[in-house]
Amino acid sequence: MFSATDYRQLSNSNIKISPLTLGTMTFGDQNSKIEAYEQLDFALDVGINSIDIAELYPVPPKADTYTKTESILGDWLQTQDREKIIISSKVAGPRRKLDWIRGGPSSLNEENIVNAVDASLKRLKTEYIDIYYLHWPERNVPMFGQYKFDPEGDQKGGKQIPWVSIYDQLTTLSKLIESGKIRTIALSNEQPWGLMEFFRIARQHKLPIISALQNSYSLLNRTAEFGITEILYREQLSFLAYSPLAFGYLTGKYIEDEKAVGRVNLFPGYAKRFDKPGVRYAVKQYAQLAKKHHLSLTEMSLAFVRSQWFMTSTILGATSLNQLKENVKSYSIELSDDILDEIEQIHLSVMNPAP
After folding, report:
1. Residue 207 is part of which domain span?
2. Which of 41, 161, 320, 330 pairs as cysteine with 302 (C-beta 3.0–4.6 A)?
């Protein structure tokens, strides 16, 4: 389906990735090793060369499952041509207070980042990681369903909460690039201020410049269009969208059956981003629009994300091979101007219900 001519250049690097990326956060929990291999083999067969993982996967992160995704991928990689596959992984910072990761990462300091990279390389059974992300900022920012910046998050007991400077984070990442352990660096769940600081400090001190941003983007969450997309354009920064189906809401299954089998019901309380007023209304509106144009809601939702001018690659995650096949098939769908205009009208009536 995809060939090398379809691949997109990752900015500030010599890496090219497919317009679809395989997400793996179900591997090791909802998906067995055998099921994971089936998805990986299928992705490779259709020309997807980009695979996204993280040290804390599978999701939701748990002490008895984290790292399993990397281990599964590492075993699979032993039978593949490593140079043809682009592997992304991520270091977890302290904001989510996951004390069982590396004994509780207190910060994104040199020791924690280096230990995270070394452990990931060991599990992946490879000598290098192509794209290495900071999974989320260490500093106080709104994350995972929060949408307001709260200055009080910078304080504890009347004192300023310290965080490792962006300069120090970049210095550590620079050493890892020089050592050959990672090829290029990227950010995830980042905000406009942080993006520009990473650019400014890297240029000022001749440190590595980030190659990509990976944030949530879907019909229910287009907050990247406020501030971030201008940065993508002016800095020529690559963008990868995760959760393009909004935790399964944009398949429509939870509208048809509130108790439908899926991550929302398997992991109660984990999908708080989507437990907001306006989500169900928006999904119903988009579902009706898709039906009107003889599309499934899944097809329309994925085609919309892919059609955005700033999209480098869309991350697809699935809990079954059939789901993955349907998601990949949607890549060939082109939305008409009429459909895009109608999508915009719905968006204006219920804007970003799940930020």
Report:
1. 4-246+311-317
2. 330
